[in-house]
Write a structure and sequence with these properties.
The complex is a heterodimer of chains A (314) and B (78). Chain A is mainly alpha-helical and 314 residues long. Chain A contains 15 helices and no strands. Chain A is globular and about 70 Å long. Chain B is built from three helices and four strands; from the N terminus they run βαβαββα. The chains are: A mainly alpha (314), B alpha+beta (78).
Chain lengths: 314, 78
């Protein structure tokens, strides 16, 4: 229905035709659709999120066995908010609670990767199947990556000396009424939307231009099956783009529509969210470069493997 | 009354400190305000998501940039 209204507006009311008409039609259709989905999904996720906070997660991860801890940490990563600015207290706080660093890394990989903006955009642009694949394989990278780091005995590369606490943490309970939760979710959604709505517009505008003006052969030649290094290049390009996920994803949708392989697109989006340069810079204050390098290396390899796997089977 | 804002300089922490200052001015109470940016001290309060708000040694909020009214409510309940 929305598609028909936009078609009517561009072709019958504005009387636009050809490349320009197609580009503008696409721009209006996509921008409003993505805005709507972002607001809805971020609200739902942030409402659910009022039941959990990082302190709650920490209390629940304490004293769990290795592999089970990794799985639990990765799952918690979906529902807890993550801001690279609080990576340090989180990391040290987990060590303080005697949570193994491998489990902490499972959480650190999963949390930014499964953030609500990425999930909302994926769902809106690619549908629920691709979203489910993204979340499922994202969890797998977080679990295996954290587990492998945990087996490498890298505790000595944590540069700050944290005294492990005695005993167990208290159960953290968050008591809020439905109204308070809704209000919190509303404020959170409003703040996030204010931060990213412009990136969406810019991303879609560039996407609309490509959609209307750049031929498919051109895209397919560089990012399609003909280029065996496409996944590798996509992952490296994704690293510095974390803060712009909202603008980058609409572009990826257009590129896949024009012949970019889905595995390459998935690997790129995972790299954008999971490997963030600002986060690495912040963690450098408390972690040895070798540990950060290992973390990026393992996650990077995992993502590249997923990219090639999907390109081969889909 | 003593209020401490726990934070390592993230945007939300700076926002919360400003909010707390406004809240104190609005209530007109005599309050000792302290910004805690030493990570080890933050850990002692068992806070893992900054900013944290501590009133008279008790953690009342973590990970949120509160509104002025919310801070005032916390001050009145303390």
């Amino acid at each position: 229905m929305w598609k028909e209204s936009v078609d009517y507006l561009t072709y019958n009311i504005l009387h636009l035709e050809g490349h320009l008409g197609e580009a503008i039609n696409f721009f209006i259709y996509d921008t409003i659709k993505i805005w709507f989905l972002l607001i809805t999904i971020i609200f739902v996720v942030s409402y659910l999120r009022t039941h959990f906070n990082t302190e709650y997660v920490r209390a629940h991860l304490q004293g769990k066995s290795q592999l089970y801890g990794n799985v639990l940490a990765a799952l918690f990563g979906i529902i807890t908010p993550f801001c690279s600015c609080s990576a340090i207290p989180l990391f040290l706080g987990f060590i303080q609670a005697r949570i193994p660093i491998g489990v902490t890394f499972s959480f650190l990989i999963s949390s930014p990767m499964n953030n609500e903006i990425a999930i909302a955009l994926l769902f809106g642009l690619f549908g629920w199947k691709v979203t489910a694949i993204y979340i499922g394989f994202g969890l797998l990278v977080a679990i295996i990556g954290g587990y492998v780091i945990g087996r490498m005995n890298m505790e000595k590369y944590v540069l700050m000396d944290v005294k492990p606490m005695e005993g167990e943490l208290d159960e953290v309970k968050i008591k809020l009424t439905v109204k308070e939760r809704a209000k919190e979710a509303y404020i959170y959604t409003r703040d996030i939307f204010k931060d990213i709505y412009l990136y969406v517009v810019i991303g879609v505008a560039i996407g609309a231009f490509i959609h209307g003006f750049i031929p498919a052969d051109f895209i397919a030649k560089y990012s399609g099956a003909e280029n065996p290094f496409a996944v590798l290049v996509a992952v490296i390009m994704g690293i510095p783009m974390y803060s712009n996920a909202a603008g980058v994803m609409p572009l990826v949708e257009v590129l896949t529509g024009k012949g970019m392989l889905l595995g390459t697109a998935l690997a790129f989006m995972m790299a954008v969210t999971a490997l963030s340069l600002p986060e690495a810079m912040i963690l450098k204050k408390i972690l040895h470069v070798r540990l950060i390098g290992t973390f990026f290396g393992i996650v990077g390899l995992g993502i590249i493997a997923i990219g090639y796997l999907f390109n081969a089977i889909l | 009354m003593k209020i401490e804002v726990l934070g390592t300089g993230c945007p939300k922490c700076i926002a919360l400190e400003a909010t707390v200052k406004t809240a104190i001015a609005k209530t007109g109470k005599f309050v000792q305000l302290e910004k805690v940016d030493d990570i080890m001290k933050i850990m002692e309060y068992q806070v893992v998501s900054t900013p944290g708000l501590v009133i008279d040694g008790k953690v009342v909020s973590t990970g949120k940039a509160l509104s002025v009214d919310e801070v005032i409510a916390f001050m009145q309940n303390a």
